[in-house]
Design a protein that fits this description.
alpha/beta, 5 strands, three-stranded mixed beta sheet
Length: 131
């Protein structure tokens, strides 16, 4: 199975599951009173989560994922849209990896969905991409 391994684990975010769990638990404890969980009852069709080092983006991300977790909708597809910081590959393309490795484990990509996008498929943009 073609896998995109975590490129910057240990630098932009912790490198192990235990470190990530500990960090997110601390952030969630600090943020839980401010999370607007009532938004989970709305007809949510999407959410935008920032990309940056966890020390910057995780404070917002815990809000988004807690709201999605409490939603009655069961989401089965998530889009990861990232810039092309390196300039490799085409201006817009779909990653051809079948799964992505993270310190939390592997996430399979929706290969059926990707086939319907009618976009160029390549791993060039992801070769050294950190987002």
């Amino acid at each position: 199975m073609k896998t995109r391994e975590a490129v910057v684990a240990g630098s932009f975010y912790p490198g192990t599951k235990k470190e990530i769990d500990n960090l997110l638990d601390r952030i969630y404890s600090n943020e839980k009173q401010q999370i607007r969980t009532e938004l989970a009852s709305r007809n949510l069709i999407g959410a935008v989560v920032p990309h940056a080092g966890y020390i910057y983006s995780a404070y917002e991300a815990v809000h988004v994922f807690e709201i999605l977790k409490k939603s009655p909708v069961q989401y089965d597809t998530f889009f990861i849209i990232n810039p092309n910081h390196t300039g490799y590959g085409k201006e817009i393309e779909v990653d051809d990896n079948e799964r992505w490795g993270t310190p939390l484990g592997y996430v399979e990509t929706d290969t059926d969905f990707k086939r319907h996008l009618d976009l160029p498929v390549s791993d060039m943009a992801q070769l050294r991409e950190h987002s």
